[in-house]
Amino acid sequence: MPIHISRLLLDTLDEHWRRYRISLIDCRHDCSENAVHELRFAIRRLLAMLALLTTLNPKARAGKLQRLLKTQLDCLNALRDTQVMLLEIGNTATTLAELKPFLQDLQAQESRLLAETRAFIKTIPSGKIKRKCKKLHSRCKARRADKTALLEAVDKVYGTALQRYLAVDPHQLPSLHHLRISMKKLRYLLLDIQPWLPDQDKDQLPAIKDYLTLLGDIQNSAVLTAALTSFYHDGLPTAIAAYYQAQQQALLDRFMLEKVQIYDFWRVNP
Questions:
Q1: Residues of the chain predicted below pLDDT 70
Q2: Contact 53, 13 (CB under 8 A)
Q3: Where are the alpha helices (DSSP H) in the chain?
Q4: Is-contact 58 153, C-beta < 8 A?
Q5: Does domain 147-270 have CATH number 1.20.120?
Q6: φ, ψ for residue 172, nearest 5 deg
């Protein structure tokens, strides 16, 4: 069992590296909203596996590799946010004419950020990242992981998510974003260790994804509200303010009704 677990985890690391490399190549050719999303997702999956492997093998350090990947995420954030806002505003501007100047500003931002992102992606040292992944693979290959250690790793991530859940304040949107970050880590970890999960825990994965989608919609709403407030510095037009305040409140109301689902996502008492 331990050798089997270790081998499959390392195979998963290799799979995440391959997906990351493909996503990076795709983004070099086309920084579309979908391509950027796929690259960010690939980076997060790779980071989650690095975190798991270093938790199971404390001597197998991956700090430099993790920092490299996190820097890439940070550099993609502005473009991702702009593209998500463009999708929303592009649809809504047909009924709220006051949004058209903001839409034009977003389009200009996207053009600038696309150029910056393409230039940045060309500088990403994919060969260096590959070598570091191989080095980590070699360090972990000789060590064993067992099912108990895997479940304890999930307990730790889930415990952090519960702490952030208990700190959620619907009037403080950053508290929901903090919960979202923890829930992403939980989802990626559960996806990676699916072969060793009881069936009832596997069944929770779609529900966790839906939970994250709702939290993501709230975060997107917060980012959009901040951008609108900054752009209309003399005050948001009444129609725009009313529309997006109602949209955000509806999302928050839904989350407050559904938030307790978190207690079904993993064992509360190991």
A1: 1-3, 142-145, 200, 270
A2: yes
A3: 2-29, 33-56, 63-92, 100-123, 126-141, 147-166, 173-192, 199-202, 205-231, 238-258
A4: no
A5: yes
A6: -125, 90
Cβ partners under 8 Å of residue 192, min gap 6: 9, 12, 45, 48, 49, 52
Q: Which fold has domain 1-145?
A: CHAD domain (1.40.20)
- Give the per-residue pLDDT at 162: 98
Q: Taking a C-beta distance cutoff of 8 angstroms, is the pair 52, 192 a contact? A: yes
Check if 1-145 and 147-270 are the same fold. no
> Counting every residue, how long is the chain?
270
- Cα dihedral angle (204, 207, 208, 213), rounded to 10 degrees? 170
> What token pair was written down for 234?
């003399």
Domain boundaries, the chain: 1-145, 147-270
Paired with 169 in beta bridges are 172
- Whether 109 and 79 have beta carbons less than 8 Å apart is answered as no
Q: What share of the chain is helix, strand, coil (3-state, %, to 5)?
A: 85, 0, 15
Q: What are the distances in angstroms from CA 79 to CA 22, 82, 257?
A: 19, 5, 32
For the chain, list the strands marked E by DSSP.
Answer: none
- What pLDDT is attached to residue 1? 35
Q: Which DSSP letter does residue 232 get?
A: S
